């Protein structure tokens, strides 16, 4: 029965989609082997690849990477081979989805690493950055494997999620705005970043915010040997993190408005063509996975610190109140924009999802 369902599901797909459905599982197996070798080599050489903030975690945690790779290497083949039919479907899907969640946690902070590389060509640890990249690749492959197995065993089309005949064609929906509630969430997410942008821009222009001047912030960057674009941008009054925040606002607006689904008229050779779905979704999901957890944890902590429930160190600021002002600007931005970005990305995914339309027989 399962073999019939798998064959029916694949028969409904165009050739390129069939190839993807068949290749994502083997690609996940190859990834598991490479990830396991990476984790084992780092453990044997005592190279920490897991970080908690700026500090490396104990090397013993490297063995968790090996464990994830081993479990993935054992479970993913069961979704590809006939003997896997004897394994309960719910169990296989639960394990694969669970591994994807673990890899997503391991990839946390990848956005910050990428921003650091683009701006200053530096990261806290290249080994840790490599672990985050491999974990992010694992998330994509494991989610793809789980979805392919889920659709194959239920006889549904991986593209539209429905059951239909073999003669179908893809139809991409016309550009459309997101529902009103999603647009409101996106606008709130944009507004949440404005105080953060104002704070960073004030410092970049040499002004004073929360008792700290731009001159006070510059030595901090030089102390960390910031190079690349960072000093160049700050020399003209542009804070790199404020620039990234502005790009985040542009991204989320494109996710909820029709113009985010079609290349603009001034784009050479691409004007009027549909934007590939992965182009905005990849940075949106990466940004949401990085900002939302950080903000959802940090915002309650800052709130408790403001109420005096938990102690907060004022750091380099003159007063605790100054530090809290800066913390509120940052946590509101990360939480508000991160959550709104996740909502907008989901809406964009659903609105741009191609539909399978029955094709009449010749």
How would you characterize the overall build of this protein?
With 362 residues, the protein is mostly helical. It folds into two domains: 2-166, no CATH class; 180-357, no CATH class. It has helices at residues 2-11, 15-44, 62-75, 89-106, 110-120, 126-154, 180-204, 214-223, 229-235, 240-256, 278-306, 320-351; strands at residues 51-52, 55-56, 168-171, 208-209, 212-213, 355-358. It has a two-stranded antiparallel sheet. It has a two-stranded antiparallel sheet with strand order 3-6. A hairpin with a 2-residue loop joins strand 4 (208-209) and strand 5. Helix 7 (180-204) runs antiparallel to helix 10. The longest helix is centred in the last third of the chain and has 32 residues, at 320-351. The protein is globular. Mean pLDDT is 82; it is low at 1-17 and 219-226. The chain crosses the membrane at residues 24-45, 57-78, 90-114, 126-144, 181-199, 241-260, 281-303, 323-345. Keywords: Membrane, Transmembrane, Transmembrane helix.
User: What is the chains' assembly state?
Assistant: single chain
Q: How does the overall form come out from the CA principal axes?
A: globular
Count of helix runs: 12
Terminal-residue CA separation: 30 Å
Short précis:
With 362 residues, the chain is mainly α. It is 64% helix and 4% strand. Strands 1-2 form a two-stranded antiparallel sheet. Strands 3-6 form a two-stranded antiparallel ribbon. Strands 4-5 form a two-stranded antiparallel sheet.
